[in-house]
Amino acid sequence: MGLNETPSGERVHIGFFGRRNAGKSSLVNAVTGQDLVIVSDVKGTTTDPVHKAMELLPLGPVLIIDTPGIDDEGALGELRVRKAKQILNKTDVAVLVVDAVAGKSEADEELIRLFQEKSVAFIVAYNKSDLLSHIPAQTSDIYVSAKNKTNIENLKERIATLSATEEPKLRIVGDLINPSDFVVLVVPIDKAAPKGRLILPQQQTIRDILEADAAAVVVKEYELRETLEHLGKKPKLVITDSQVFAKVSADTPQDIFLTSFSILFARYKGFLLQAVQGVKTLDALQEGERILIAEGCTHHRQCDDIGTVKLPRWIKNYASKQIDFAFTSGVEFPDDLSPYRLVVHCGGCMVNEREMRYRQKCAEDQDVAFTNYGTIIAHIQGILRRSITIFPHILAELEE
């Protein structure tokens, strides 16, 4: 996968925030070297967040987000402001764009407080510096001009420095295997599978296995048993799509580690422990309680869709109670989770780590259990313990 194909969840998310007419969109265009956003002297030209995945040197793959003015007015303005604040939940580095002539306003100060509250690294960039008679000599902020391209490279360097302070990410699977190990991946090819390609978690997992100097063997679910018999070497690990968990578990000898792509991604995104703790709620559900099923991306729904059809059916059969379900997808995720007893999230391959942490923290703060597809499917099918045996500290939590 080339850099230009890096999934959005793996890119550094850079958000540009500020008041209307501070020059956010002009500065985005200057930083990217492209006319990504329409610019105008009319206040409020940017009405919705604009996302653009691209290469930005010296950072590499990034997702640039231009947001509506934080001081927008009226009912529609309030919606735009709320949307801009939601963008902070997945922002790695925020650029507060201030009109250098007008100076900081209370709206700008409110944004800074919000950055600090959400622990988002940020830079204050005073735009339109070409209109100033002099620039303060001693300041930690940066003065730029989108019009004259003044200090744009300096701004990019500062963004790169802040993004580099992020803690190194976990591997998907590479830290669980050794060079020359075999890893068998079970990938069903059915009507729900994308035509002509593998889904993103499968692609990323294969890449991580190869980077660990191990071998990836990819099979369909009904080929697994014969493959294991003729492989000639016991694999270190079998990784399966959660929808065929039960069959794969039955066909995989007990002395071989088994898990799912979804469980691996819960660990990769930093919430596997919470997912294992949260799934216990399934055994205590009461009649009429509500479950939110959340997906990080939007896609065409199949007639037997995993999130909206299969999971509700499996959960109802397991609980033997009438359970109500709600569904969200993409960037939409409710701030108020109090109506729900449990949130069941997808693997989150299209959601960056900050956004996933935010969603998990929203549930934690409101005392709502949080788990994911792979974990709850393994629990329903009675194989959760086996599915997390490769993670001893997580297994210990399950057995408490």
Total domain modules: 3
Could you list the spans in which at least 5 consecutive residues all have pLDDT below 50?
Answer: 37-47
Structural class by SSE content: alpha/beta
End-to-end C-alpha gap: 41 Å
The count of DSSP E runs of length 2 or more, i.e. the number of strands, is: 14
CATH architecture of the largest domain: 3-Layer(aba) Sandwich
Q: State the order of secondary-structure elements, H for helix, E for strand.
A: EHEEHEHEEHEHEHEHEHHEHEEHEHHH
The CATH topology of the largest domain turns out to be Rossmann fold
Using the CA coordinates, give the radius of gyration: 24 Å
Query: Shape from CA axes?
Result: globular
Strand order of the largest sheet: 2-3-1-4-5-6
The amount of helix comes to 25-40%
Q: What is the CATH class of the largest domain?
A: Alpha Beta
Mean pLDDT: 85
- How would you characterize the largest beta sheet? 6 strands, mixed
- What fraction strand? 15-25%
In DSSP terms, counting alpha (H) and pi (I) runs of 4 or more, how many helices? 14
Question: So, the CATH homologous superfamily of the largest domain?
Answer: P-loop containing nucleotide triphosphate hydrolases
3D architecture notes:
The chain is 34% helix and 18% strand. It is α/β, with parallel strands linked by helices. The chain has three domains: 3-163, Rossmann fold (3-Layer(aba) Sandwich); 174-265, 3-Layer(aba) Sandwich (Rossmann fold), CATH 3.40.50.11420; 272-380, Rossmann fold (3-Layer(aba) Sandwich). The strands form three sheets. The protein has a six-stranded mixed sheet with strand order 2-3-1-4-5-6, sandwiched between helices. A four-stranded parallel sheet has the order 8-7-9-10, with helices on both faces. Strand 13, helix 11 and strand 14 form a beta-alpha-beta unit. The chain is globular, with a radius of gyration of 24 Å. The model is unreliable at 37-47 (pLDDT under 50).
